[in-house]
From TrEMBL:
Methyltransferase is among the record's keywords: no
Species for this entry: Halocaridina rubra (Hawaiian red shrimp)
A Pfam cross-reference name: PTR2
Name used for this protein in its record: Solute carrier family 15 member 4
GO process terms (BP): oligopeptide transport
Alphabetized UniProt keyword annotations: Membrane, Peptide transport, Protein transport, Transmembrane, Transmembrane helix, Transport
GO cellular component term of the entry, any: membrane
Family assignment from sequence similarity: Belongs to the major facilitator superfamily. Proton-dependent oligopeptide transporter (POT/PTR) (TC 2.A.17) family.
Length: 276
């Protein structure tokens, strides 16, 4: 989690420097910087800086968010489902309150409003960087108070071993065919993962195999959620780009629409004369 926080903060520091054109020259070549200036966009960062900063932020977010929830639940030191449910409820509320501040307040500051900040994106990224740095400092100060559970083996390694053993047993079953199957009406044909269980000739406990099967069901749920999240995260990318081209002046909307309709009619008339 400390490594994730460091990556998280490093990515936002790059974004903050990018907002004021203070990036190290090693990230952006002089030729690309000169090209941006020649195009009349002196504040346009190079592509390498954008990809590097976004990738670092993504890695930091993934590491922190995937560990902070189970780490917080471990601090309860109890198996009481009511307390665990209460923790995750408060955790979810904190996430949404933070999102409200980030999407609402910081986004408002980034609009370059007079009297708030002369460089909105610099102030917005700076606020986020300072908040993350304070979070890391607070997290490090409280390290002696945490209940840290020592890791026990590799979950991914056990999953791969179970799947491999089940696959090997299934291949052996296909090669032998049904000649060795006892003609017993009570005979139960094991499913794919069940072949890794001890009672079917495998070497893994039934609970471990059942956990892997449950994980497969969860992966199906997460796969079905991919389209939803793809659309949801457009709020931070393409929807903002579309918003830059919207007309917000309601007083001139009718005149603009009439002018657009007039131009469209003229263009259609020109095409008609060409075809005729």
């Amino acid at each position: 989690m400390v490594c994730g926080f460091c990556l998280y903060i490093s990515g936002y520091i790059l974004l903050t420097l990018m907002a004021v054109d203070k990036l190290p020259r090693g990230i952006c070549g002089f030729e690309e910087i000169e090209e941006n200036y020649s195009e009349g966009t002196p504040n346009a960062p190079c592509k390498a800086a954008v990809y590097i900063s976004v990738t670092i932020v993504g890695l930091g977010v993934g590491i922190v968010k995937s560990n902070i929830a189970p780490f917080g639940a471990e601090q309860l030191k109890t198996a009481d489902p009511q307390k665990t449910r209460s923790f995750f409820n408060w955790f979810y509320w904190c996430i949404n309150l933070g999102s409200l501040v980030g999407v609402g307040v910081i986004t408002f500051i980034e609009q370059d409003n007079p009297g708030i900040c002369s460089n909105g994106f610099f102030c917005g990224y700076l606020i986020a960087s300072v908040c993350l740095l304070l979070a890391l400092i607070l997290f490090m100060i409280l390290v002696p108070c945490y209940h840290i559970v020592a890791p026990e083996g590799s979950v991914i390694g056990n999953i791969l071993k179970i799947v491999w053993e089940a696959l090997s047993a299934q291949i052996r079953h296909w090669r032998q065919g049904r000649a060795n199957i006892v003609a017993n009406p009570l005979h139960i044909e094991p499913r794919f993962l069940d072949r890794a269980k001890i009672r079917f000739g495998g070497s893994f406990h039934e609970s471990a195999v059942d956990d892997v099967r449950s994980l497969g069901k969860l992966l199906n749920v997460f796969t079905a959620l991919l389209p939803y999240w793809l659309v949801y995260f457009q709020m931070e990318t393409s929807f903002q780009a579309q918003g830059l081209h919207m007309r917000f002046d309601w007083s001139d909307s009718n005149a603009t629409n009439q002018s657009y309709a007039k131009d469209l009619n003229m263009e259609n008339a020109t095409h008609s004369r060409r075809f005729s």
